[in-house]
Design goal:
Elements (H helix, E strand, L loop, with lengths): L1 H10 L11 H15 L5 H11 L4 H19 L1 H13 L21
Length: 111
């Protein structure tokens, strides 16, 4: 079984051994996301908090970042929400498959 898990890690197959993020890192990301939502009221905040609380993997939390950002933007404004999310975004480094994560945008130049 360990051999198969290692093979899936090398192949980077999601959900089949690609657990690059330990449970402790998953917990830290979850706690950070919940802490920025804490103390804010409203049904949408409660719903997002519940989804974050029960997210089973780092990929799910990665996609929930956008919902957290939108909720914070509605309350605190976009620039404050971006500041709050900056540290959380950095916590995902090394924990996502290569195809996930921030995209690097390059400008096209005429050559």
């Amino acid at each position: 079984m360990l051999l198969f898990r290692r093979l899936f890690q090398l192949l980077n197959v999601p959900g089949l051994g690609s657990r690059q993020v330990g449970e402790s890192q998953l917990g830290r990301i979850r706690t950070a996301m919940l802490s920025v939502l804490q103390g804010r009221g409203g049904q949408s905040i409660q719903r997002i908090s519940q989804r974050v609380r029960f997210a089973g993997d780092v990929e799910t939390l990665w996609y929930l970042r956008q919902d957290v950002m939108v909720a914070l933007s509605a309350i605190d404004g976009e620039s404050a929400a971006r500041r709050q999310m900056k540290e959380i975004n950095s916590m995902f480094k090394g924990g996502l498959p290569g195809s996930m994560g921030p995209r690097v945008h390059q400008r096209f130049t005429n050559q």
